[in-house]
Design a protein that fits this description.
The chain is built from ten helices and no strands. The protein is mainly α and 295 residues long. It has a single domain, classed as Vanadium-containing Chloroperoxidase, domain 1 (Up-down Bundle).
Length: 295
């Protein structure tokens, strides 16, 4: 039972990776040519032989793979160096302090969870992750069909952020190798569990908050935020009541997911809305995001 959630998460991540590659490989076709390229195309149209072979490059997916690897590598570098910046000291202290308090109380909380809740909670958490993944994928493919650039970009950002998060949480799981609840004496010990299925951080929580934060930032209205963050909170909570994670596991996963999703959603924003066009709450949120943005 320990390996099933991990296989499901890997499958979701693999699907999103394929979406990411497919979207980048088709991106040039979706772009509107500028006047110069249009003129060049018109000028050469008359000289092209009727039976000339297609000029589509055979290595488009190879180029897309290289672009994807470069983008993901750049993301990981910026995300990893963020905690060491001066402006992140306060946030580092808050997160580390909260995680430490939770770790100190993990076992007592875990042993209060009734075993009768396990199966239902696990099903709820799986359904939540699948639902968020399906929503992101649905937005992407709807954007392709309707030629909605914003929807397409949202799907691409969701896939990119998911791959970023999977790399981070998988590495932490392998390094910290924390025991899962009810795996024997000394529940929750670090560097003592199976490194392939460690408990810290929670992959479900990381994945859910990553997708939720991207979509909530791309569609910043209250119904969308309540739906996305509500689903991510449900996934995180049911990982604890499902008996497969400690509270600190889901807290750390949620922080990672939200941070990665927020970074990817905002990293390429060059034009911000006019302050006069926003209400006070949105201006406050943008000010906070500008202060904590990963650079």
């Amino acid at each position: 039972m320990v390996f099933r959630p991990r296989i499901r998460q890997s499958g979701c991540a693999g699907l999103l990776w394929l979406v990411l590659l497919a979207s980048w490989s088709t991106a040039p076709a979706l772009e509107i040519p500028d006047d110069a390229s249009a003129a060049t195309s018109s000028a050469t149209a008359g000289t092209t032989l009727p039976d000339a072979p297609s000029a589509t490059p055979s290595n488009s997916y190879g180029v897309s793979l290289g672009t994807a690897v470069k983008t993901i590598g750049s993301d990981e570098w910026h995300i990893l160096k963020y905690p060491f910046q001066k402006k992140a000291i306060v946030w580092d202290a808050l997160v580390v302090g909260a995680t430490g308090v939770l770790i100190a109380n993990d076992e007592s909380v875990a042993h209060q969870v009734s075993p009768s809740w396990h199966n239902t909670s696990i099903n709820v958490s799986n359904a939540g992750v699948y639902g968020l993944g399906a929503t992101a994928g649905g937005i992407f493919f709807t954007g392709l069909i309707t030629h909605n650039e914003h929807a397409t970009n949202t799907g691409i950002r969701s896939a990119e952020a998911s791959v970023d998060s999977v790399i981070l949480y998988a590495a932490l799981k392998a390094i910290l190798a924390r025991q899962r609840p009810y795996m024997g004496q000394g529940d929750g010990k670090f560097f003592s569990g199976n490194w392939t299925s460690g408990s810290f951080p929670s992959g479900h929580a990381t994945f859910a908050w990553t997708l939720a934060s991207v979509m909530a930032h791309e569609y910043p209205n209250w119904p969308m935020r309540l739906l996305m963050y509500g689903a991510a909170t449900a996934v995180s909570t049911t990982r604890v009541t499902g008996g497969v994670h400690f509270p600190s596991d889901v807290f750390s996963g949620s922080v990672i997911g939200y941070g990665v999703g927020t970074y990817v959603a905002h990293k390429d924003r060059h034009k911000d809305p006019s302050p006069h066009s926003q209400n006070k709450l949105n201006r406050l949120q943008n000010a906070v995001l500008e202060h904590v943005a990963i650079q």
